[in-house]
Amino acid sequence: MVMVSQGRLRASFARRLSEMYGQEVPAYRTLVEVSREVNDSVLQRAGAGAERLGSIDRVTAERHGAIRVGTPAELQQVARIFGALGMRPVGFYDLREAASSAVPVVSTAFRPVADDELARNPFRVFTSMLTPADPRFFDADLRERLERFLAARQLFPPELLELADRAERERELPQEQAERFLALAVHAFALAEEPIDRAWYDRLERVSAVAADIGGVTSTHINHLTPRVLDIDELYRRMTERGITMIDTIQGPPRWSGPDVLLRQTSFRALAEPRALREPDGGITTGSLRVRFGEVEARGIALTRAGRERYDDLQARADHGGTDGDDHPHSRARSIWEREFPATERDLALGRLGFFTYQPVPDRVRDGRPPATGLADLLDHGWVRAEPIVYEDFLPRSAAGIFQSNLSGQGVKDDSHTAAGYDADWLSGAIGREVLDPFALYETQQQRSLQGAAHALGLPEI
Ligand code: OOG
Ligand code: NI
Question: Which residues form the domain of 459?
Fold first, then answer.
């Protein structure tokens, strides 16, 4: 019997989802095409250096998706489906507290965590759950109706969930079941055709377009699928040349002369899609909704907690501006970075601001006794080599920006109420699986490599 491993299931799922989304949202096809062109030119320009943060095969296939669900029970089911694909919940993002825009959701990202699985296919899904218990968004009556509506719907057929459990338990599926699982899973994230109750949708939309997108319909859908590109500024230019209007910024760190870190993202708003609406008098009309969009991203080196604090601090200063003489936030950010952010991978590594794996250099190892004086000497004298660890996660502020830039209304949030306390522990409890800490994952990977290098060099520790 031919068996399909979780890694292959994940790669096939990402590929099929991409085919489906390309049929549903034609501008996505353009985005993927332009991303390929840009990656090709970077590869020609930079040669092997272009693959420093992942092989070109990985980057070409790399996607993240985003979905939104309504309840802990739905989130548990999502966790089973992604569990089948070897993906685990990593990171907690509270989009309710974003400064620029408040969205009534808390989120995590499902993704593979082991380096070999990430290298095989790093598919990840940013997954948000509605927060009906937060009184700043929903009054008691709306909360009650919303919870009743959500409890009555079924997003995933039982057959899909049973196959998912089997794949998770056995870490593989026989070919035939794998086929069935993939078909059902991809279908569960397609845009459904059943009519939307217009009055209900509108009522939720007055609170938040995201609340309506989640709780106003009886199904879920993938709302964007994001390819990875090696030069996002170039991509932005080429998309604009093709007549696709991008949002006016690239979110995340500025373009600058030093190493790429964390994550830079930009997006465009998808066209309105026709949807059947059920009017209050029972009649069906065709309306149009703009709920889906296109996004693209460039990934850089993962930062340690200290590095992340430095990053957040520089971003905050770029936002507040003032004294730098240049008023454009992006060029202000850039000049702050050029002055203050570590300019080389070496500085990031030695300042313990970025995460790396450290490999002993074989020829050097045979060559005598290494200095016992620490990482700087070992690096500078060629005993160990530092390879950057790529950032596999998301940024709350960019996520909030991406949500907001693609919404129709601002929505309302009444800050005279106290927030409902959804946090990472609450989310772990709700999913029934531990939400992993991304910093701890990178730290473990780095630490393991340092121990390996120390062992190979005969040093007690590095
Ligand atoms: C998710 C927005 C967040 C990202 O890349 O930061 C996101 C959503 O719109 O549901 O996907
Ligand atoms: Ni996204």
Answer: 355-388+437-462
